Every structure is written in structure tokens, then in C-alpha cells.
Amino acid sequence: MRAPLPSPLVAVEVADTPRRGVPAVLVAFAGDPVRLAPGGPADVDTTDVTGEVGATAKKGATWVVGVGDGAVRDWRRAGASLVRALHGDADRTGVLGYDVHLPADLDPTAATAFTLGLSLGGYRYRITGTEQPKRVKSVRLVLPAPSPSLTDAVRRAAVLAGATSLSRDLANAPSNVKDPAWLAAAAAKAAVPGLEVRVRDEKWLAAEGFGGVLAVGRGSARPPRLVELSWRGAGDGPHLVFVGKGITFDTGGISIKPADGMHLMRTDMSGGAAVISALVAIAKLDLPVRVTGLVPAAENHVSGSAYRPGDVIRHYGGTTTEVTNTDAEGRLVLADALAYAVRNLAPDHLVDVATLTGAMKVTLGTRTGGLFATDDTLAARIAEAGERAGESWWRMPLLEDLAEDVRSDIADVRQCPPGPGGITAALFLREFTGEVPWAHLDIAGPARADKAYDEVVPGASGFAARTLIELAEGFA
Question: Is 451 a catalytic residue?
Fold first, then answer.
């Protein structure tokens, strides 16, 4: 059986009147004394709430959720913790809807964060043929008085949450289902009016000279694709082009990976998933900015037709690359797409997103993405967009003393120069970006999670999708 796409999320809406007979959730800040009528069950974050707590409600329980000092991250974390607790209680009580009573002075950014936590903290991707426990379906945020700004913030947050969820769905899908053609079809299915999706097959790729994508996909019986998503929002702003790595499964090819952990390579197209979901959300938000998304999709497999270390491949536009490791396939498909964007799309800014190097995971861990950029202003915009999105980025250097190592003795460039792997991979990609302001986002660490934290759950995290949306909105 297949898991449903999209995965259902808790519906969050705003109201100014509580519902009769619906369990209530009260918000408390750190140090607040909370004293309710004794006698019923309650869930209290004792780290953030002090006092004696009982609970009563006509149906179910009265809950108290602590939001710490009220920082934006505290609200996002509180929403996620709350929905996990409510999901855990739903099957026992049968209660599938709650009212959360919010303070009168709530800031829209806090409302956005809380909604993201509520929507995403209980995300679940599961393929099963058995009946599953009941889960909360809806949460109403009850305000003391009508607030259009908070209502708009919650509606926008629902779109952002949907983008993260779609990105997770695409990355979590098993690779016996998910091949390049499936990913392309999923992008087309997710598109909304105004978002154009064009899919190019292996014949088109061969005719146009996409040597990197074709080489990587050659070892698989399931041929590669190039997905191009175009949003032409009203306005005269800059043209942004996002490029996402779409390796639907990565064995490593002839430079084969160890068996331990290879099953996680179904998420090696997380960069492509982020680009697809970001473009869908940008269209839903009707942002007045022009954005194009490119996802070169291939399966890196082992067979008699697989590409080899020592091969020389010719990319789109003519640059040749000496292959030294077939497990460094992501940069080869990105190189084609970057060169295509520069030559054909006239981008004002170019951003690629990829689970590219294990070195970046070692360097920054699993909760921070690596940010490389040729333009300081673009780098600052991405970091600021990530902060608004609740996604952390750390800028890494493009060390010029290593740039010469990208040169090859038998081709224009070599795939894996010596030195620090995350940096040299970025230097390789830079060769295909021309003079366009460019940023490379390496999400090898935060694209997957082993355990829940904040609004993230185990599995694909959907990391980078919201950053791209915020970046586009900033330009708009």
C-alpha cells in the first residue's frame, strides 16, 4: 500500500468565540502560576509552568501549554509539543478538536510559529494496511477580539506548513515507488493554477547535452528527468532560479556505499523536494516575483551500464568533468542544471539546494545547513529568510586557495578535488554559475532527523523549503 499524499495535517483556524463543550488549551508563560479546578487530567509543561494544576472540561480535559519566555522558537516548539500530546490522547478520549485560548497581545510572528508547530509537530508518514489510532484533526486559535493580522498570519503559516509537509512526503516516499518519472509526476500533480510544470525526458536530455544527468542515471533501468517549474508573478522584480538535487535513490554507483544507512538514500532528493514544494507555495501565496525551479532527477544505480571513476563527461554547455567518485553524483546533475539556468533563464539570483556532502554533516551537525555564496547580499538575505522560517544556516567560505584544485589534467574540471569536501564541492559547482550571484545550500545534515525536536519529526524534515519561500517573499 502507498501512504496518502499529501499527508494529513492538523487544520488550524482562527476564531474569536470558543466552542461549547470543546476541550480548551490555556497558554502560560514561564513563571506564570496556573491554578485550575482540581479533579481532572491535565498536561502541563512543568519546565515552563508553575503552580497546582488540575483540569475539568465538559468533554475531555483542559490542557496547559507552556511557551517559555515567548520567543518565536518557544511558540513553535510549544505548538509541536502540544499537538504530539493531543495526538497521544485522541485515541483514548475520542476528542479530535481543541480550542487554544491565546493572549490578546500575541504578535503575528508568534502566531505563525505556533501554527507551524501545531501543523508539523504531529506529521506522520506511514505505509500500512492496519487501522491507525485516532489523531487530532483541528485546532481553533481563539482570540479575545477579531484580528485580521493574526488571521492572515495563520493562513500564511498553513501554506508554509503545507510546503514543508509536501517536501517531507516526497523525500519519505520509498524508492521502489519513487523514481524520476514519479517525482516529475508528483510535481505536476501538486501544481496550482499559474504554476507551469514542464518535464523533459531522457531523449530531450540527450539531445540537449545534459551529460551529467545522463551519466548518473545511466546505471538504472528507470531513466532520468528534468523538472522545470515556472511562476511568473506580477511585478518587475528580479528573476530567482532555484535548483534542487533530485537523486531518487543513491547506491553510490560503482563507488558503492556501505550497506548500513543506504536505506536512507530515498531522501537524497530532499533538495529537489524543497524546490518543488517552495514553488507550489509561492504560487499559492501569489507572490509578485518571478521564480523558476529546476530539479534534475536521476537514480544512481549499479549495473553494466553505470558510469565509472575515470570517465570524462560533457555537461550542458560543453564543460567537461573528470569523474573520480561515482558517489559524488549530486554535483554532476546540479552542474547541468546550473549551466542550463545561466544560459537560458537569465536569472538575477541563482540558488541550489542539495544533500551534497557528508563533510557538511560532520562540520555543522544535523540541525544547521551550510551556506556558500558568491554574493554577500544574497547570503545575508538567505540567512535572514532562514531565521524567519525557523531554519538555521551557517555561512561557509569559498576558499580561493583551493580553487585551482578544481582543475583536471584530462578535463576542464575534476569532480572531487582534494581538501575539505563541503568547500571543494561548492567550488566545483561555482564553475557552472557564470557571473550570476549564486548561493549553494548543503542540507546533508538537517534534511533528515533521527528524533523529534521542535516541529521536526523522525525521517525527512522538509528543511530548506520555508527558507526558499521566505527568500522569494523578501524579494517580492
Answer: no
